[in-house]
């Protein structure tokens, strides 16, 4: 019986094979679209000089400059693969979360974006903050007419309570700057010993002389308070609405929208907040009537719906995901689909090849790695120029005061000969190096193969260690981890250099912060001197100068100023990558027709 | 022995039944065609290094990255049809730019090595356990049935998915790559550990009915030892099902191995592998459909040939269907 079945099956199978062979002719990347190539390069300008200027009190007044052509009404659909792990403003600590939470949350200050250029302005506050006493005291005044979603006014007490929460147990996930600065502590662990959050009473370092005024008193001069005041942790929280862990799924709104329903891992629905007044808000708009977030659908499916305008595709946008690599080239070829791509610099992110300095101790060996690193080929397997421009500096051009430098110029494909010269000069030449990487997708394996190839050409055996994404951080970022190299993305917490070197290159930092175990006593001393500078501009300049001293030692090899390419439905207007947060800014979206 | 058989080249024994079977097989044109394809595949796999040397390429060099003009900045082949050219007959791999033809040839080695080694272990374990238990029956038989049921209920795929990272972290020194032999061994062991069950169960049933036949009775009456009865009397009579089972097991293991590599728990980079090629093909399917076709068609033809061969072997050995 089965004799019959298989043999008859053989005929259609062979026919299928033949048809597949015939249909599989495909155009090459170089053919036919030469015209498309000229204007084909996406409008990605990663690492543009997007430095956020400080706005004045006048800039801080509402309403926000209107988006050209915008109209009100309709429901915007946001399809993301995963739900937000945190919505509690004091727990959000990621660019996209910052950006999207602007829909319902307001902070002391915030970035106003006009024509893609960011400017830090007062949000709930009338300006970006007034400092006195050499940067030890910072005063904020709240605007008139700012209110919660139930109409009650936002007061200085609410700001104070919100920041006090960052000390409390369970809030370790958020940024640690408020606890550290307000108590002058090395790290959060030391800070919470001095003050344990709202349960242990009020924090003396934050004063609220009246309902409109907040005064921060820092033991040491702090220059970056206006930027920290824009972080989600600087959002007000009302004690009577603080539902503890419940606040993490449904925070109380101060922005143009309020959360009406949140089914975890399924949907999140926002409606207009009637108590939000446009004239108090220089950043946000209230164009759409509703926002409907859905979670769980595969991005490839979402992208296909959006590109083809099927179902809700035209009204859909994604804030978290990039264009799937499978669809990218097709979207580049088809002008209609290309118009739906939203590309931009991914905030102040840079992607680098990290070298564990405590294992590759010889600077000549690290220089050899710098020269042999095949930047162009590595970027090619990651998707090509759309993932970012090749970097020569540690910090991103989006950082205040950034200077371009290229200490050891090398051609993009790497220079094996030069690498060999440096290896010959090295006192202890590494024979074998270990490269650890997260196995998030097969492209990580291919990137590893590119590196193996380049290191082999220079005579170094590269051992590749694929690690589970969940285990990567704990495996690699510990003092005695047996890995020499890894590729990682880093970003400053806000666009000044003050969270880059001080939080990653001081030898006293633990392996979680200073994972490469960089140690240079001269740099340590300079960092300690800079820490006491209260003037933001002078501090930024000093840090930018110090960066070149650090990079002379080649502690890391700069790779990319990363870019993102996202997509929007045909009917979605105002979609642009937020220059600071690096994803489509939901607060500027509108529907072209509804 | 199993390896020889799995290639479908049973040595024609001098005894009658096999000679008859060989004659029947030779008359089966589909079977002969399948045998030719299978032998060709085996030959290609064995001669892969020679062929690659003659062709002037190897499966690990990143041609597309080393030679400018082969891949676009996005990593797609510049030439149409997946970069097919006089240099690269089957085109080049998008991204890393390796040569597809040599990848295919070496990928076949990977598939065949895993399949044949697993089948060898399956045949030995299955025959020994199946025949012995079938002859012994009693407590041994009940224990055997229980073990078989447990193994059949085992989620093999999940086990492999879970096992792969454990092997990586437990048995591989942090300063060393996971050796290729370790990947192969763990795959072969897992395939073998679960693959012998159906064979052994078939043999157990066959032996149970043979046990009551007159020639066994006669041997027993003559005072033959158990060993003699199992090895000399029973075994020669169960070769037919063994042969059929292992020829049909090979394509099954080839597809299973490809599926595992597709999921990322089979054979890792840089060892060439068909399953991984197909997985890469699915990533670039919209832009470079040609790349998917070569491993897809190769696996289709390969598995089909083995299945047809297995069918033909069964037909030739089965007196009811052999004319």
Automatic annotation (TrEMBL), chain A:
Signal recorded as keyword: yes
Sequence segments annotated as region (Disordered): 225-244
Species the sequence originates in: Streptomyces eurocidicus (Streptoverticillium eurocidicus)
Phylogenetic placement of the source organism: Bacteria, Bacillati, Actinomycetota, Actinomycetes, Kitasatosporales
Keywords: Signal
Keyword Transmembrane found: no
One Gene Ontology biological process: peptide transport
Domain Solute-binding protein family span(s) in chain numbering: 119-506
PANTHER family xref list: ABC TRANSPORTER SUBSTRATE-BINDING PROTEIN (PTHR30290:SF83), PERIPLASMIC BINDING COMPONENT OF ABC TRANSPORTER (PTHR30290)
Record's GO cellular component terms: ATP-binding cassette (ABC) transporter complex; periplasmic space
GO molecular function, one term: peptide transmembrane transporter activity
Signal peptide from the UniProt entry: 1-29
Protein name: Peptide/nickel transport system substrate-binding protein
Any Pfam family the entry gives: SBP_bac_5
TrEMBL record, chain B:
Predominant place of localization: membrane
Keywords: Cell membrane, Membrane, Transmembrane, Transmembrane helix, Transport
PROSITE patterns assigned: ABC_TM1 (PS50928)
Domain of life assignment: Bacteria
Organism annotation: Streptomyces eurocidicus (Streptoverticillium eurocidicus)
Transmembrane stretches, start-end: 33-55, 112-136, 143-168, 180-203, 234-254, 291-310
Compartment list: Cell membrane
Designated name of the protein: ABC transporter permease
Family, similarity comment: Belongs to the binding-protein-dependent transport system permease family.
Keyword Transmembrane: yes
Record bears the keyword Transport: yes
Domain spans labelled ABC transmembrane type-1: 108-310
PANTHER family the record matches: D,D-DIPEPTIDE TRANSPORT SYSTEM PERMEASE PROTEIN DDPC-RELATED (PTHR43386:SF1), OLIGOPEPTIDE TRANSPORT SYSTEM PERMEASE PROTEIN APPC (PTHR43386)
A GO cellular component entry from the record: plasma membrane
SUPFAM superfamilies membership: MetI-like
GO terms classed as biological process: transmembrane transport
Membrane topology (UniProt): Multi-pass membrane protein
């Amino acid at each position: 019986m089965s004799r019959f079945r298989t043999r008859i099956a053989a005929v259609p199978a062979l026919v299928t094979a033949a048809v597949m062979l015939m249909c599989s002719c495909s155009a090459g990347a170089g053919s036919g679209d030469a015209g498309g190539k000229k204007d084909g390069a996406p409008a990605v300008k990663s690492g543009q000089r997007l430095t956020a200027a400080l706005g004045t009190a006048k800039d801080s007044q509402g309403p926000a400059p209107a988006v050209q052509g915008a109209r009100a009404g309709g429901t915007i659909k946001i399809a993301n693969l995963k739900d937000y792990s945190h919505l509690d403003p004091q727990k959000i600590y990621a660019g996209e979360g910052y950006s999207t939470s602007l829909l319902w949350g307001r902070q002391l200050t915030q970035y106003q974006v006009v024509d893609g250029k960011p400017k830090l302005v007062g949000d709930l506050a009338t300006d970006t903050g007034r400092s006195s006493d050499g940067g030890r005291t910072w005063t904020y005044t709240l605007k008139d007419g700012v209110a919660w979603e139930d109409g009650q006014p936002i007061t200085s007490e609410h700001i104070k309570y919100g920041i006090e929460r960052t000390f409390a147990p369970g809030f370790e996930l958020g940024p640690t700057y408020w606890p550290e600065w307000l108590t002058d502590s090395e790290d959060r662990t030391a800070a919470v010993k001095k003050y344990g959050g709202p349960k242990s009473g009020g924090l003396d370092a934050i004063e609220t002389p009246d309902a409109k005024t907040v005064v921060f008193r820092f033991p040491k001069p702090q220059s970056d308070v206006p930027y920290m005041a824009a972080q989600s942790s600087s959002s007000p929280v009302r004690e009577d609405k603080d539902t503890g862990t419940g606040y993490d799924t449904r925070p109380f709104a101060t922005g143009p929208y309020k959360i009406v329903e949140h089914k975890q891992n399924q949907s999140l629905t926002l409606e207009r907040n009637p108590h939000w007044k446009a004239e108090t808000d220089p950043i946000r708009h209230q164009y759409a009537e509703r926002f409907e977030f859905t979670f769980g659908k595969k991005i490839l499916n979402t992208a296909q719906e959006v590109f083809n305008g099927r179902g809700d595709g035209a009204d859909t946008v994604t804030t978290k995901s990039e264009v799937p690599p499978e669809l990218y080239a097709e979207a580049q070829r088809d002008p209609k689909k290309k118009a739906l791509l939203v590309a931009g610099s991914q905030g102040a992110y840079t992607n680098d090849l990290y070298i564990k300095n405590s294992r590759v101790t010889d600077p000549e060996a690290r220089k050899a790695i710098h020269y042999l690193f095949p930047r162009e080929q590595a970027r090619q397997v990651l998707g090509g120029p759309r993932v970012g421009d090749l970097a020569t500096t540690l910090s991103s051009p989006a950082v205040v005061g950034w200077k371009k430098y290229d200490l050891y110029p090398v051609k993009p494909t790497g220079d094996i000969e030069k690498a060999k010269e440096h290896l010959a000069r090295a006192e202890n030449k590494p024979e074998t190096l270990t490269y650890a990487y997260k196995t998030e997708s097969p492209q990580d394996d291919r990137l590893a193969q590119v590196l193996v190839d380049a290191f082999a050409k220079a005579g170094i055996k590269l051992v590749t260690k694929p690690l589970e994404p969940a285990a990567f951080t704990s495996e690699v970022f510990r003092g005695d981890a047996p890995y020499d190299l890894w590729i990682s993305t880093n970003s400053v917490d806000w666009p000044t250099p003050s969270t880059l070197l001080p939080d990653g290159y001081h030898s006293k930092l633990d392996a979680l912060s200073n994972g490469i175990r960089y140690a240079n006593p001269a740099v340590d001393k300079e960092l300690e001197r800079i820490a006491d500078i209260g003037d933001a501009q002078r501090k930024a300049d000093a840090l930018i100068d110090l960066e070149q001293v650090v990079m002379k030692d080649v502690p890391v090899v700069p790779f990319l100023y990363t870019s993102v390419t996202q997509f929007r439905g045909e009917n979605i207007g105002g979609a642009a990558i937020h220059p600071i947060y690096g994803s489509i800014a939901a607060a500027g979206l509108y529907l072209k027709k509804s | 022995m199993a390896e020889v058989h799995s290639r479908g080249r049973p040595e024609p024994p001098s005894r009658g039944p096999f000679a008859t079977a060989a004659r029947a097989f030779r008359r089966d044109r589909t079977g002969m065609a399948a045998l030719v394809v299978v032998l060709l595949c085996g030959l290609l796999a064995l001669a892969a290094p020679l062929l690659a040397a003659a062709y002037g390429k190897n499966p690990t060099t990143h041609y597309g990255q080393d030679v400018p003009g082969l891949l676009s900045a996005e990593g797609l082949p510049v030439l149409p049809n997946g970069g097919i050219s006089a240099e690269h007959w089957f085109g080049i791999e998008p991204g890393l730019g390796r040569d597809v033809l040599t990848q295919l040839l070496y990928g076949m080695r990977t598939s065949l090595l895993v399949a044949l080694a697993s089948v060898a272990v399956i045949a030995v374990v299955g025959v020994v356990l199946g025949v012995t238990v079938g002859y012994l029956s009693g407590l041994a038989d009940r224990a055997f049935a229980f073990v078989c049921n447990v193994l059949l209920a085992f989620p093999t795929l999940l086990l492999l998915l879970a096992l792969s990272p454990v092997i990586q972290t437990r048995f591989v020194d942090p300063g060393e790559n996971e050796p290729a032999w370790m990947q192969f061994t763990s795959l072969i062991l897992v395939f073998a550990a679960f693959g012998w069950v159906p064979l052994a169960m078939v043999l157990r049933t066959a032996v149970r009915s043979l046990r009551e036949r007159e020639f066994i009775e006669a041997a027993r009456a003559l005072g033959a030892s158990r060993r003699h009865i199992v090895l000399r009397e029973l075994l020669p009579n169960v070769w037919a099902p063994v042969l059929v089972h292992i020829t049909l097991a090979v394509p099954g293991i080839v597809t299973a191995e490809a599926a595992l590599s597709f999921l990322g728990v089979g054979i890792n980079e840089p060892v060439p592998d068909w399953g991984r090629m197909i997985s890469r093909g699915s990533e670039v399917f919209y832009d470079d459909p040609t790349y998917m076709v070569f491993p897809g068609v190769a696996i289709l033809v390969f598995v089909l040939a083995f299945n047809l061969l297995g069918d033909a072997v069964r037909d030739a050995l089965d007196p009811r269907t052999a004319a």
